[in-house]
Specification:
Blueprint lengths: L13 E3 L5 E3 L8 E5 L6 H19 L3 E6 L3 H11 L4 E4 L4 H5 L3 E6 L2 E6 L2 E5 L5 E5 L7 H13 L1
Parallel strand pairs: 3-4, 4-5
Antiparallel strand pairs: 1-2, 3-8, 6-7, 8-9
């Protein structure tokens, strides 16, 4: 599947989250949602990214923005990851890659001269009308949450 672009309809999905409840994107209509796809719990880059979103969560929340981290890890892994680092955003498990494939973030990656298939760190801002408002593809973990917040500020005013 190709990655949705700004103004495209956001693919809807329902995924289990680490705290025991499901996240249904269709039920989030009416406000902004940030979906941040990250490769793996308890890795350096993913920990930095989740900690940065945690630190900035009050600023997202005061603007009525929902944050959701998504990776192929299990809900059990997510719960341990959140507890270990005191993370605040909800974390959705997508081991079957339902949302990951729908958003086109699964693909060929290269590291240390090795090519493999994996999740490409990417974030999407979903607008209140259910369309994609902004896309951050192949981002670096450090500073990414701040860039997403700046985009939200520009979108909301």
């Amino acid at each position: 599947m190709t990655m949705p672009a700004p103004k495209d309809p956001a693919p809807v999905f329902t995924l289990a989250c680490d705290e025991g409840a499901d996240f249904d994107l269709a039920a989030e209509r009416g406000h902004f949602v940030v979906l941040f796809f990250y490769p793996k719990d308890n890795t350096q880059g993913c920990t930095i990214e989740n900690q940065d979103f945690t630190d900035l969560m009050p600023e997202f929340s005061e603007r009525g923005v929902t944050l959701l981290g998504i990776s192929p890890d299990s809900t059990t892994s997510h719960a341990r990851f959140r507890a270990k680092y005191g993370l605040k955003p909800r974390l959705a498990a997508d081991p079957d890659r339902v949302a990951i494939e729908a958003y086109g973030v699964w693909g060929e990656k290269k590291m240390a001269g090795r090519t493999y298939m994996g999740l490409k760190r990417t974030s999407f801002i979903v607008a209140p009308d259910g369309t994609i408002a902004d896309v951050f593809a192949n981002v670096k973990a450090r500073g990414h949450a701040a860039a997403v917040l700046e985009s939200i500020k520009a979108l909301i005013g």
